[in-house]
Amino acid sequence: MATQRIIDFLATRRPSGPCLVVDLDVVEENFNAFRKALPDSSIYYAVKANPAPEILRLLASLGSSFDCASVAEIEMALDAGATAPRISYGNTIKKERDVARAFELGVSLFAVDCVEEVEKVARAAPGARVFCRVLTNGEGAEWPLSRKFGCVPAMAIDVLARAEALGLKATGVSFHVGSQQTNVEAWDSAVADAAFVFDTLAERGIQLTLVNMGGGFPTRYLKDVPSAAEYGRAIFEALRRHFGNRIPETIIEPGRGMVGDAGVIKAEVVLVSKKSVSDENRWVFLDIGKFGGLAETMDEAIRYPIVTERDGDARSPCVLAGPTCDSADVLYEKTPYPLPVSLTVGDEILIEGTGAYTTTYSAVAFNGFEPLRAYVI
Amino acid sequence: MATQRIIDFLATRRPSGPCLVVDLDVVEENFNAFRKALPDSSIYYAVKANPAPEILRLLASLGSSFDCASVAEIEMALDAGATAPRISYGNTIKKERDVARAFELGVSLFAVDCVEEVEKVARAAPGARVFCRVLTNGEGAEWPLSRKFGCVPAMAIDVLARAEALGLKATGVSFHVGSQQTNVEAWDSAVADAAFVFDTLAERGIQLTLVNMGGGFPTRYLKDVPSAAEYGRAIFEALRRHFGNRIPETIIEPGRGMVGDAGVIKAEVVLVSKKSVSDENRWVFLDIGKFGGLAETMDEAIRYPIVTERDGDARSPCVLAGPTCDSADVLYEKTPYPLPVSLTVGDEILIEGTGAYTTTYSAVAFNGFEPLRAYVI
């Protein structure tokens, strides 16, 4: 996944220290693949995955809309050329003053998942459109999905009814099947829940129009994942199955699926050692770790492909760890990572599929190390 | 643990958004308590715990030395008034160019835990002093201690012998009993290992002089912890037991124990909700979470005391979560946190014992949220 442009950039510029390089051509390809796979859905890029201005500008110019988690992300999307009607404030947890600020900036589509949040939006953004997030079980997702966002469908009905009663426009339902979701069937039961909410509210005279199907689209790490086209087919079938001929307006919010495979981190081997003469596994220490941008290795959830210049050589299992003095800064230990036996101090390696959820996750100065630098080319 | 000075600062200045406030008087008390408990040990403050310039300046003026994890931290300590002989480069994972830079700055005490690292130090800092870190089991520590740092004592002998052979000064042994270590006996077996390394090398004509006993000194979160005086007694007894009358020079490296209880985070309740009508626990969402400075809630390891203005009211269990769109940004769920039933949106709360491992752990811009601001008073 290190494209020729990325390889050439690193060879020519030789940036020192760990850094991420993102190839905009891959982002554009991903955007076009989503548009082709789901031609009737609006694409709201999940800005939190990677808010680099170059990425936002490219996507704005391609006609993308934007799913924002905070006022700062809304401002970034506007700065990149998005118009307010193309922005969704997708965080269900918002301060009332942030709702007011977003509304001032022209944003009029808000996520909610409880009556308390509806009341805030009604006060701070009168007349705005809201969609209610429902809980899904997240089965099949590689990045853990907790119960943090959403409510049960029965409660969503009350939440949306309350929104209408307070003068808001109850627009629809959202869900999220879990990040790095590799099971194309995962959308089916969530779409069924959405249809249940639509039907029940219709009986009360409230016509919903929007299903926000969230993100979850995976990027290819070590295992093959289904293509955007396969997801498109499965999602369309689910919509047909549960909505029949009255297929609603739909939104998708790819983040990882849009930028994950567009980025590669260049890192350096700082130390290779053993803990005892009889130690079976070597320890390989890099100049980047859990606090420098690879936070998604938490619980060894995301397993990135690693490319070295010695990949033809014999391999043996390694514990892979970061450079900080924190004992929790270990990337892969429960499942050691096979790396070339010849790997040595000073070697540069590439960590692929790191375009999403790396730069902004990076700690501001842990152990005095600077945050991950990024080049978008 | 919110001192009157901190309470007054918050009442007067009313900073908006989440922030940490550190009371330097508490840091000074902690320093004096360590000095009194272990009068024969040198105190090397673990800069990574909180590198705020005001803290480093205070400790430098009090006569503290500094344990640094990177060149950046060494420069911060020097800027704060420490002299190079009072600085230890305590990270066992260093780039050779960083060793060279530290040596240029006058630092001549380095941590190692393998022959490969000794070779780097010998090339980049000829003649410097090195101590070898040995593995401990970390039992009794609340923050997980992995096998990341250190080697078995038998290997430490070879590492230090190699250092001498390469023209370095093999100075001693270090260990770390695990952060937030609440068992005062934990130092005993590590001191025994150190004595074994001393004795074996003495037989080979190499006289070690230094035992670096690391950190691990706890701060008071929800449970009482032993006092510095109790640790001092246990450590002195361990040294007597294993070194007899030849008690070596000793170093301690408190980080959390020096600044943990000196800091309080002010945060705001953004949302209180339930996921269904029958949900037993409320969800309480704050404007700070795992990516905004509370990384040590990972796996619910550190459980901070929380003070609200409604603490006299009845309590019920809550799931506590942060403000980001990341489903992993949940602080306490496996063991819900009892909070006042009357707690409501907009309430300010204090999270105590947050002076260590918060500001620098904070993500640089995750979800567009700015890193944790800090005020040192």
From TrEMBL, chains A, B:
**Catalysed transformations (reactions):** L-ornithine + H(+) = putrescine + CO2
Q: Where is the Orn/DAP/Arg decarboxylase 2 N-terminal domain?
A: 25-259
Enzyme Commission number(s) from the entry: 4.1.1.17
The domain of life is Bacteria
Which InterPro entries does the record match to this protein?
Answer: Ala_racemase/Decarboxylase_C, De-COase2_N, De-COase2_pyr-phos_BS, Orn/DAP/Arg_de-COase, Orn_de-COase, PLP-binding_barrel
Which cofactor is recorded for it? Answer: pyridoxal 5'-phosphate
Query: Pathway involvement?
Result: Amine and polyamine biosynthesis; putrescine biosynthesis via L-ornithine pathway; putrescine from L-ornithine: step 1/1
Name one molecular function that GO assigns to this entry: ornithine decarboxylase activity
**Record PTM N6-(pyridoxal phosphate)lysine, positions in chain:** K48
Is the Transport keyword given for this protein?
no
This protein's record includes keyword Lyase: yes
Could you state one GO biological process linked to this protein?
putrescine biosynthetic process from arginine, via ornithine
Keywords, ordered alphabetically: Lyase, Pyridoxal phosphate
Xref: PANTHER family: ARGININE/DIAMINOPIMELATE/ORNITHINE DECARBOXYLASE (PTHR11482), ORNITHINE DECARBOXYLASE 1-RELATED (PTHR11482:SF6)
Name of this chain's protein = ornithine decarboxylase
Q: Which organism is it from?
A: Aureimonas endophytica
